[in-house]
Every structure is written in C-alpha cells, then in structure tokens.
Amino acid sequence: xxxxxxxxxxxxxxxxxxxxxxxxxxxxxxxxxxxxxxxxxxxxxxxxxxxxxxxxxxxxxxxxxxxxxxxxxxxxxxxxxxxxxxxxxxxxxxxxxxxxxxxxxxxxxxxxxxxxxxxxxxxxxxxxxxxxxxxxxxxxxxxxxxxxxxxxxxxxxxxxxxxxxxxxxxxxxxxxxxxxxxxxxxxxxxxxxxxxxxxxxxxxxxxxxxxxxxxxxxxxxxxxxxxxxxxxxxxxxxxxxxxxxxxxxxxxxxxxxxxxxxxxxxxxxxxxxxxxxxxxxxxxxxxxxxxxxxxxxxxxxxxxxxxxxxxxxxxxxxxxxxxxxxxxx
Length: 329
Ligand code: TYM
What we know:
- The protein contains 13 helices and 5 strands.
- Helix 2 (51-68) crosses helix 12 and helix 3 packs across helix 13.
- By secondary structure, the chain is mainly α.
- The chain is globular, with a radius of gyration of 21 Å.
- The strands form 2 sheets. It has a 3-stranded parallel sheet. It has a two-stranded parallel sheet with strand order 4-5.
- Ligand 1 binds next to strand 1, helix 1 and helix 7.
C-alpha cells in the first residue's frame, strides 16, 4: 500500500482552510492507503511560542483531528517532535539545499517581510524540514492545500537531488494530492485571498453558531451586480466558493440565478451561508468537546502513533545512513 502523509502546525485551532484543504482528503484516504498524519510542532517554533502554548495547542489539534474522523486504528497519528529521526534526515537534506533556492521561496520572503526582527535559520530551512517529514516515510501522496505547492516542489527537489548525488533510486518524488481537479484554496471572507491563521480571518471548526454568524455577516461584499450574467469580483466569488463547499446544489443554483438576474441580496446569501456552515460543523464541534476532555485517550493515541511512526522512520534512516556511508545502529 502506498504511503500518504500530511501535517498541520499547532498554532491554534483547525480552521475551514485546514479542514477542506487537507483534513477531508486525508480522512477519505484512510481505508486505501497507509496514512501518516502528524502535528508539526517543530515547525511552529519559527515564531517562538511559549512552552505551555505548544502543549495546549498540540492537545487541541489532536482532539480536533480525531473529531474530524482521523482514526488511530487506521492511521498513524503523531507529534513531529516524538520522531527524532526526522531531524537527522533534515540535517542531511540541508547539506544538499542551497541558500539561493531557500531564499526564493515565497513564504520565506513573505515571513521575512512581516517579521523582519525574526528572520531565523529555521524559517529559511522550513521547506527542508517539511521535506524530511515527507521523505522519512517515503510518502508518495501528500494531501495539502494550494498554498503548499512551492514547499512540495522543494520536497521533490530534495528527493531528486539525494538520489542523484548518491546514484540511487531511494526516495520517490512526493505529489500533492486532492480529490478535486485542482488544489483547494479556501478564501478569507475579509476580502483577502486566503483563509489563514496569520491573516486573522479564520472560521474555526470550534466556533459556535453565534460566532460563525457574526463572522459570515461581516464578510466583505460590493454594491452588487449591475449587468446580468456578469463575472463575479473576487470578494463575491469567495462567498460562492463557500456555498459550493457547504451548501446544497439547489442553494448554490438559487443564488447563482439571483446573481445572474441582478436581484441578489447579499444579506440573504450570508444568512444562508452561515446556517450551512453551522450545520456542517456542528457535529464536528460536539466531537471536539468530547475528545478534548479525554486526556488519557489523547495521551494514548500520541504514544501509539509515535511508536508506529518511529518504526517507519528508523527503517528509512538506516537505509539513508548506509547510502551516505555512515554506520547503521
Ligand atoms: P498549515 O498548518 O499552515 O496548514 C495545514 C494544512 O491546511 C492547508 N490550508 C489550506 N488549504 C486550503 N485553503 C486554505 N486557506 C488553507 N489554509 C491552510 C495547508 O495547505 C496544509 O495542507 N507546512 C505545513 C505543515 C507541514 C506539512 C508537512 C504538511 C509541515 N510538514 C509535511 C504536509 C506535509 C503548514 O504550515 O501547514
């Protein structure tokens, strides 16, 4: 069975971007692939979180994974920092990755601009750590959103380069995976391109009905269409993208028609959209509460996941050490 891997940084709660961009695909893949899903706690260190925040966020994300349907009986669910083998591979990959190519990564450039006082080496080598996460299990498919495409390209480059340098066919080139034709990009409702933690525009799976209503009703719109059948501007297309995902086809068609004949009332659309998001997320929210309070279960899932992940990681790493010319323990 092919290996599949994906991960999320524990910097707060899961939002709809994480959910529709990565988690839903992963949940669907659990029966047909050998799946690894992890919490990227080392990656979250780039912004220097407090120790107590790391622990709390890690437990939160694990409970939310389970609530979304990740099943520890089918998948290996673990914390990145419980698998030290990842770091040894990270070191090897860093030796073959060049400053110029890391500096050209768009997310690095953006972060460097946003946090000029904290342009640390971890931020620069973020893509090689991500490549190690993937290559340590020799994963072939990686369910991720559109925003991770450049990091995925770097992971493929790391795999290719390692194989070329040592004259082996050891690492497969991992591909991003999505059930839809194209990678998913969940928009923000504030007029910005993408829903994201650092954009501060997220609807979280954990948000209650009132919070969701408030956030959706505040969504940025325009003054409305003036010509029948006109192309939707981005802020309006964003609302329709959400309808496509969470509403019924009839609801979507209803608002499409209203848009096309210029009789659309954004207030009605937002009310319907808020209700459909609430209906979609309510059952998950209930499960989040249930799993969050079961600390013993969370501990056990993380412990068993770590043992399984380490077993796979050790196998890869002993091959890598042999290939590079080091002793194998
Ligand atoms: P992170 O924590 O930012 O996001 C986790 C996953 O959610 C997806 N995502 C989105 N998808 C669509 N639309 C959005 N608005 C949206 N926002 C987030 C991301 O594409 C991602 O799949 N570098 C990764 C974590 C990571 C990782 C890995 C992922 C570390 N190592 C190895 C896969 C494989 C990150 O920061 O994701």
